[in-house]
Amino acid sequence: MTLTTKSPDSRSTLAQRGGSARADRIFSWWTLGTGLLVLAVLGLILITTVREAWPAFDAMGPRFLTERIWDPNPATGDAIFGALSFAYGTALSSLIALLFAVPVSIGIALFLTELAPRRLRGPAVTVIDLLAAVPSVVFGLWGILVVAPALVPVYQWFHDVFGGVPVLGSLFGQVSSGRNFMTAGIILAIMVTPIITSITREVFSTVPRADKDAALALGATRWEMIRGAVFPHSFGGIVGAVMLGLGRAMGETIAVALVIGGSTNITANLFAPGNTMAAVIVQQFGESTGTYTAALIGLGVVLFAMTVLINVLAQVIVRRAEARMKGSR
Amino acid sequence: MTVTAPPTTRAGAGGPDLTRAALSGRRRFSNHLATTAIWAAVLLAVIPLALVTYEVVIKGSGVMSLSFLTEDIPNSYRREGGGMAPAIVGTLLITGMAALMAIPLGVFGAIYLNEYGKQSPLARLIRLMADVMTGVPSIVMGVFIYISWVLLVGQQTGFAGALALACLMLPVVIRSSEEMLRLVPDELRQASMALGARKWKTTLTVVLPAAISGITSGSLLAVARAAGETAPIVIVTGIVFAPNSNLFDGFNTALPAQIFRNASQPFEAAQDRAWGAALTLIVIVLGFTIIARLIASRFAIKER
């Protein structure tokens, strides 16, 4: 810079070659604008959906969240839109999914970071990547045409064996078809396993080598090393990963819409058909009008708020866990 | 490491027995149990993948033929035959249009995060929100585009579907591109600046080319994911039975939406078409994924 000020000629050529300061400013504003797009889209989603859902919120008030009846076309009286049954279905199917997916995901992550022979590590990662690459609608197709019919005898067996036991009996009630909460939970479990696995694996790989070696040097078996060195270090990260999986399970639409059976229902019976918020929207959006549409969009608002809340929490937890890890290394 | 006394001498000298046989039965058992459980977990992940691939390939190849790929969709679920051409055209066009919108915007967003914003509070907020946005359910994105685009222009179109997919892809592209830009060594930037290039020129002609293979592969993975998205397509694009190559006028359809609609029908003809569409979709998605991996491994040297 000091050189260029001495001769005006060379200064101008340099400036031309590098472009002007204005181009620089325009470029930086342009990139900033595209970055802000993310915030804009999220903000717009909130504003537009709340505005469109307002007629339903207005008509139902807080009952929108506490009412279990969903009757868009009643024989007499006003339509009733209560989200509670669907919120229950969302919670129950996601919970079942996590019960299956979390232990399996942690197991796979441990396999990849601690146990796998070098030549098995690549194929195992590929399996997880492929599992994540299969579109959810394909899992739905497989679920409704193959898994659901195949599981009916299994459900029937559970009902026959445990149906009479006091508390368990209410969980394993009558089996009407293969399309129920349980099937939805199993299909969801397959779909959230890759995401929980990949994050847990990242967190496990940040555990300091020295900690693990120290445990082994003290005579710990591999499992004791995992319990004593790996788990305590990665607890926060695992919690975050599970919450991200929960967010994914709650928002999953198509596969659940196909296999959950589609009835407005609150029951402890895992073998009963139900419905979830996301699935109801996609099933009924096409045939809805007026307040009915507003109510479906209202379900979307609730879903959006819950998933954003869970995701923000999860991201903050994962970030904090990873930052602490980096500090301790 | 320097001490190389054989174990026998140390045991003989009264030291602890460190051989595996000295472990108590309970400890050995729990270690064994945990190892078995971990292997079982891996197996549990392989089984559904193997089963779903098997079913799709077997049932899908049963209906697969040239006419399946080129004929129109029958307007009755009950009717046999016909094909999925409109859905294949729709999937390619809608996903392509979404990629055209989301990838450039996403890459510029990533440039802001890595070259300008860095660790500033705004950049950290955008980074967090991009991660949150990847978690927004696709159905919510569909409803959003329905409200803010379909209601605005007054009809369901393929372009509305492309908008929804673009919104879903954007945060993924931003975050994966940012990771790749971060791998570009600072020396490259400094060298370019030292030669007198402005920051925008440095970014576009030095930093971006250095990271382009990683950005391409990350973007292709995002495209592959978007190609399989169903819920927004069902809500915002309507349905057609003959190919519609105009994204801006008239209804459209895509493979995932066709799988969804046909899978829930009790008619065997519809279910067969769903399997065929699923095989086609998986081939397309896998194609994108494999190309992405090839690019990533082939040109990985540049990312050092």
Architecture overview:
The complex is a heterodimer of chains A (329) and B (304). Chain A is mainly alpha-helical. Chain A has one domain: Orthogonal Bundle (MetI-like fold), CATH 1.10.3720. Chain A has 14 helices and 2 strands, in the order ααααββαααααααααα. Chain A has a two-stranded antiparallel sheet with strand order 1-2. Chain A is globular. The two termini of chain A are 41 Å apart. The N terminus of chain A is likely disordered. Chain B has 304 residues and is mostly helical. Chain B folds into 2 domains: 38 residues; 219 residues, MetI-like fold (Orthogonal Bundle). Chain B has 12 helices and no strands. The longest helix of chain B is centred in the N-terminal third of the chain and has 39 residues. Chain B is flat, with a radius of gyration of 27 Å. The two termini of chain B are 34 Å apart. At the A-B interface, helix 2, helix 3, helix 5, helix 6 and helix 7 of A face helix 2, helix 4, helix 5, helix 6 and helix 7 of B.
Report the span from N to C terminus of chain B: 34 Å
Order of helices and strands of chain B: HHHHHHHHHHHH
Quaternary state of the chains: heterodimer
Over the alpha carbons, how many angstroms does the gyration radius of chain A reach? Answer: 26 Å
Q: What separation lies between the terminal Cα atoms of chain A?
A: 41 Å
Q: What percentage of amino acids of chain B are in beta strands?
A: under 5%
Helical percentage of chain A: over 70%
User: How large a portion of the residues of chain A is in β-strands, by DSSP E?
Assistant: under 5%
- At CATH level 2, the architecture of the largest domain in chain B is Orthogonal Bundle
| Structural shape of chain B | flat
Domain count of chain B, please report it. 2
Write down the CATH topology of the largest domain in chain B: MetI-like fold
Tell me the total number of β-strands of chain A.
2
Strand order of the largest sheet of chain A: 1-2
Estimate nothing, just give the exact number of structural domains of chain A: 1
InterPro entries (chain B): MetI-like, MetI-like_sf, Phosphate_PstA, Phosphate_transprt_permease
Protein name (chain B): Phosphate transport system permease protein PstA
Family (chain B): Belongs to the binding-protein-dependent transport system permease family. CysTW subfamily.
Function (chain B): Part of the binding-protein-dependent transport system for phosphate; probably responsible for the translocation of the substrate across the membrane.
